[in-house]
Design a protein that fits this description.
Blueprint lengths: L3 E5 L3 H9 L11 E7 L2 E7 L1 H5 L8 H7 L4 E4 L2 H14 L7 E3 L4 E5 L10 H14 L5 E5 L2 H10 L8 H8 L11 H9 L5 H6 L2 H7 L5 H15 L15 E11 L2 H21 L2 E12 L4 E12 L2 H11 L9 E13 L8 H20 L5 E5 L9 E5 L20 E8 L1 E4 L8 E4 L2 E14 L12 E8 L4 E7 L1 E2 L12 E2 L3 E7 L2
Parallel strand pairs: 2-4, 20-21
Antiparallel strand pairs: 1-6, 1-7, 2-3, 5-6, 8-11, 9-10, 9-11, 12-13, 14-22, 15-16, 16-17, 17-18, 18-19, 19-22
Helix pairs in contact: 12-13, 13-14
Length: 520
């Protein structure tokens, strides 16, 4: 049976404001509220318990609130920052289970099926969550049930409930108000007018008679009501979409005393790597992307991510990559849990005694991994072959993690290409031109060059299936007086009198010349 935990944070905006101002350890002794601007009017966005006690409510205008309590303390709300902090807190709950999700603006869902025994049982897990949130200055109401709808109802209207089975959940839900089913106000008022005040009264009605009573009127609302009832009873599955991708392999290490020194963190990571690579070796797997999560005692999470070009389970190599980024790990008050997660893996059979060639390839791969970890994956790239005869489109840059480069499809029959190709062809000014031949003299980058030798042309027609308007190119290999060997091309063909140009052979009375590359 599934076990779902619903965490409701009823004072999340207030708690977040107090935490950011280091006031979360002080009691709510004075009325306080956060405000929001709505149609040029200040309204109450969130209120503390002291403000709620004297009659202040969310949505009330600030003027009305001042009339009730003239010395009300207020501060502007920050909904976007609150949502981001809620996502950060949700990520922190990965310490309990990888199946975590944000639930609205003030809730978190955890699928802890099969995980509770790791924390001493269901009651111990809920106590641990409650204690950690309280110590961080966060008010919460928590419950556990067999589906998310029941768990949500209990956390909001009967906190602390741990339902053992659907029968017990149904019995508890029957004594709660209609709001426990997350119905809109209009539907709740409609049911109240019919004398249905508790969910038990609603569940006792036969579905057929319920549908018949509202036949032809508010049919969509009734369908939504039936859906809510089916979800609560578990007849309709309501999956939890994980906040982060589920890891393929994961190991963790908890500490009774928080780790603050980088040396101690590094020692713990080595032990985690030893355990993780052992598991991967048993499954003939290797790491492609590895993530390290550091869970701090203040309720935040630090994350490091590394990637490899090829699958690897070499402990020294992976540790070397992590050490490149360890200085970015800010412990502050310390880590009480480290989690090492293989985010992406690939097949890696047991290694045989390697040859010198294999050892060299392995060394190059490790070098690229280290450079990528130090400079960032976007700073080091590979060249991938593409199916195109246009020189500047025949290759593209791709990430280091790309394995399929398609160089085996490169045509060996193509003429020789320059060792360096400009990213974009640069226009040159031809001073002495030979029709249908290479130029005799040209100027490029304000320097004049005299051509001594020329070979060509190599004609490359446009890719008509992509853009038939591109002109035909004639490429020439030329050697200038300085000894440099260059790759030039003429864009467009000379117009011939009496000959009508075809659609895919653009002709011009004055073609343009471009510099495109350099030979060795």
């Amino acid at each position: 049976m599934r076990r779902i935990i619903s965490i409701w944070l009823p004072l999340w905006p207030i708690d977040q404001w107090r935490r950011s101002h280091r006031l979360h350890k002080q009691p709510f002794d004075k009325p306080f509220a956060l405000t929001a601007s709505e149609r040029q009017t200040q309204t109450l966005y969130a209120v503390c318990p002291a403000a709620h006690k004297i009659g202040l409510r969310i949505g009330m205008t600030l003027a009305e609130a001042r009339a009730i309590h003239p010395v009300l303390q207020v501060a502007p709300s920050t909904p976007k920052a609150d949502q981001q902090k809620l996502e950060d807190l949700t990520r922190w709950f990965i310490r309990y289970t990888p199946l975590v999700a944000v639930d609205g603006d003030d809730g978190i869902l955890l699928d802890v099926t099969g995980c509770t025994h790791l924390f001493g049982g269901e009651e111990a897990m809920l106590d641990s969550i409650k204690t950690r949130l309280r110590n961080s200055g966060i008010n919460s109401q928590i419950s556990m049930a067999e589906n998310r709808r029941m768990a949500w109802a209990f956390s909001h209207y009967k906190p602390g409930t741990i339902s053992e089975n659907p029968i017990e959940s149904r019995a508890i839900l029957s004594n709660l108000t209609m709001a426990a089913l997350q119905l809109d106000d209009g539907m709740q008022q409609m049911l109240f007018k019919l004398g249905l005040k508790k969910t038990g009264q609603l569940f006792d009605l036969p579905r057929a008679s319920l549908m018949q009573r509202f036949r032809g009127k508010n049919s969509k609302k009734i369908e939504a009501l039936i859906t809510r009832m089916d979800q609560a009873e578990g007849r309709r599955n309501e999956p939890i979409i994980p906040f982060t991708l589920l890891p393929e392999w994961q190991v963790r290490m908890a500490f009774s005393e928080p780790l603050q020194l980088q040396e101690m963190v590094g020692t713990a990571i080595k032990e985690l790597l030893l355990e993780l690579t052992g598991l991967l070796a048993e499954a003939d797997k290797g790491v492609m992307r590895l993530a390290l999560y550091g869970f701090r005692v203040d309720g935040s999470v630090q994350k490091l991510m590394i990637g490899t070009n090829k699958p690897s389970r070499d402990q020294k190599h992976l540790m070397r990559l992590l050490e490149e980024k360890l200085p970015d790990l800010e412990a502050e008050f310390g880590f009480d849990l480290l989690l090492l997660s293989a985010e992406e893996t690939a097949h890696l059979p047991p290694e045989q005694t390697s040859s010198a060639k294999a050892h060299a390839e392995h060394s190059v791969t490790e070098f690229l991994d280290r450079i990528g970890a130090r400079l960032g994956p976007s700073s080091v790239r590979k060249i991938k072959h593409r199916h195109s005869y246009i020189p500047e489109q025949a290759q593209i840059f791709t990430s280091l993690q790309t394995n399929e480069l398609h160089w085996e499809e490169y045509l060996s029959t193509l003429p020789i290409r320059p060792i360096r190709l400009l990213l974009r062809p640069e226009a040159i000014h031809v001073l002495a031109e030979v029709p249908e031949g290479a130029p005799k003299r040209f100027r490029w980058r304000r320097v004049e060059h005299l051509v001594t030798k020329a070979e060509g042309p190599e004609r490359i027609a446009p890719e008509w299936w992509i853009n038939s308007e591109d002109p035909t190119r004639d490429y020439y290999q030329v050697e200038v007086k300085s000894g440099a060997r260059l790759w030039l091309f003429r864009s467009g063909l000379y117009a011939i009198k009496g000959v009508r140009p075809s659609e895919n052979r653009k002709q011009s009375t004055q073609p343009q010349w471009f510099m495109h590359g350099f030979f060795a």
